Write the structure tokens for this entry.
Amino acid sequence: MSKTRRREKPTYGAAARARAASFRYAIEGVRYALGEPNFRIHLMATAVVLIAAALLRVSAGEWLALILVSLAVLLMEMLNTTIEALVDIAAPEYHPLAKVAKDVAAGAVLIAAVAAVIVGIYVFTPHLLRLVVR
């Protein structure tokens, strides 16, 4: 019969330090993503979309749609970077399944980006047509 040990609750100070460390790690992850060329491209596209949305005075619902699809693309790009790093560790040499993992992750980014373009066309077309018709 084995004895189970009770886990002691961490002190407030230790818990706060652990939480602070987890935020630092998250910030490091975002900094790493910012160094990735594709992430920067998507980030610049997001900035252009948000500036256009402000200039065209889109509705609150349109803002929400644009923000959500933009975030989806950025998050998918970060997940793609994560998957690529993990695959590189697990399979430093070429392996067909490693290629599948990387290709599927890149495909997810592509699908998110296409969805973002479709939402952008849906949101911006009426606003741009009003400018042209004037």
